[in-house]
Amino acid sequence: MSRADLAVVDTAAVRPNPVWSLGLLRSEFVTTFRRWRTLALLGVLAAVPVLVGVSVRIETRGGGQAGPGGGAGPAFITQVTNNGLFLVFTALAATLPFFLPMAVGVVAGDAIAGEADAGTLRYLLVAPAGRTRLLLTKYATTMAFCLVATLVVAASALAVGALLFPLGDLTTISGTRISFADGLGRALLIALAVALSLAGVAALGLFVSTLTNSGIAAMATTVGLLITVQILDQIPQLHALQPYLFSHYWLSFADLIRDPVYWDDLVKNLELQALYTAVFGSAAWARFTTRDITA
Amino acid sequence: MDRPSATERQPEAPENAGALGDAGNPEADAPVGAGVIDTHGLTKRYRGGQLAVDGLDLTVPAGSVFGFLGPNGSGKTTTIRMLMGLIAPTSGTARVLGHPMPRASRVVLPQVGALIEGPALYGFLSGRDNLLRYDAADPTADPRTRRARVEAALDRVGLAAAAAKKAKAYSLGMKQRLGLAAALLQPRKLLVLDEPTNGLDPQGMREIRTLVRELAEDGTTVFLSSHLLDEIEQVCTHAAVMAQGRLIAQGAVADLAAGARGRLVVITPDPGEAARVLKEQGVADVVAAEDRVTGEPPERDLADVNAALVTAGVRVRGFTVERASLEDAFMALTGEGFDVAG
Predict the structure, then answer these.
(1) Residue A263 has what DSSP assignment?
(2) Are B139 and A293 within 8 A, CB to CB?
(3) Is A44 on the interface with B (CB under 8 A)?
(4) Which of A131, A139, A287, B256 is buried deepest, with most CB atoms within 10 A?
(5) What is the predicted ipTM?
(6) Which one of A1, A12, A127 has the shortest CB-CB distance to B137?
(7) In B, which residues are within 8 Å of A17 by CB distance?
(8) Could you report the per-residue pLDDT of B19-68, keeping only the tens digit for each?
């Protein structure tokens, strides 16, 4: 290549199109959702509603109610036999405490640390991806994973529910009846609320991910923190602390099937997630933009 | 571009790099464009207190193939990481392509191709997809030409046939080539290659050297770190030598090698007589071994020395001055062998 050619390319390089910088986000989506690990996590999540649906079906074959005495098991499980749509709520209630945040913890924990582990982080940074841009891209991808994971659970539950149980108008928690279409709309809204409930874990995981060069360590720490918080949320003596635990208002999504919708806890949940995102997002940014990349 | 770049202004290597081991450069505010890489008092002390790089004053002239030499652990990679904005220096400044690093990373790095401490790849992606990802990470890379540039880079390092294979199935040499391809995705003003021939077979090493020469002919400055002296000697126009975090010497390779004096070698079946005559002629440090007599060449014309040998009846079969190698220079500078870890 001659000098003249170089010069031509150089002038072009000085004025890059701002849209080009979204290329990294697209690449990150494609890379994340093509990984075996991501697909395996989504597969496990898709299997949960199948498991719940089939076991409810087997247990109620004689025509009885699901759950001994109707008290145990995930929320709404007793309603599933009447309306397959309730399997969506049941499955989300069953996966939200652990399966979903664990999957998010794996993806978020691996986000930066995994790249550092593989050494690819240094090449992304000299490309130059830009540290802030890379961090934002990673957070956006993790949130996209939250949404996809939640939708996978919901879609799988809806399919299993439609196959094994009758569908139709449904009775809300408040006792009123709403149409099936309205119910489907609320199910979608619930999936969105669940996905947003995971924003705090995602930010926490991303922060942990900036602290270490080991993907496994970051994933384990994030999941460990998740379990700890879930346990703390069960200890009555800590009730003064509990409103600040990111998982405290998670099950508020059930309020979306009230008529009218009871917004208080839903709003508190979103505020708490926003707070966690702001605090741990800033911490992750402060750490990642000043850190020596030695891996 | 509001000012001409270093490359355009100085197509030829300037002579200001000839200061051998001259620490304490007074020109702390060196003019922009003094070198493609310019560091002043660059120092890195890790949190553990270990001093990895100590007051480095490095100048890499534009258009040069610059060899960065030193044993493992001498601070080469830490220096490269500071130049690439991956590590913040403890003190001192570094300018790359005339801009301060790491502050101007966004402007500088798209014009720099780098291979740092070996290649790093996504094992679950194909070779081609690895390059597409690295190219997508550069906000100045045009997505419309991305596929074509990736194919050209694969072709250039001889990986076109293996482009669809998953990178985890690559041999070390293939990974190294893919890493090089990533550095060649765009036309670069500076290439930073850290141990580029690691893991390659002799054929691959030769190809890389040819590639480096080609790139240098195109006007790209190549900054090449290595612990292989003959490699540096074969491809580099300039070199710097590091040991234990300090710069021992830098300059044109010819000047560095000249720093260590060559030796006069006489091949003769009469070594005893030859040694005596050579001493008379002012040759110092004469060593005779079998039919080979060597010594430090004297100041006077070597033709006279040869004539004196012949006149004295010494049967001279060979009479040469062996040029000092970079290794001799390195030995002279450090007083130790090269393969000593710092």
Answers:
(1) -
(2) no
(3) no
(4) B256
(5) 0.84
(6) A127
(7) 142
(8) 333 333 333 343 444 689 999 999 999 888 888 999 999 999 998 999 99
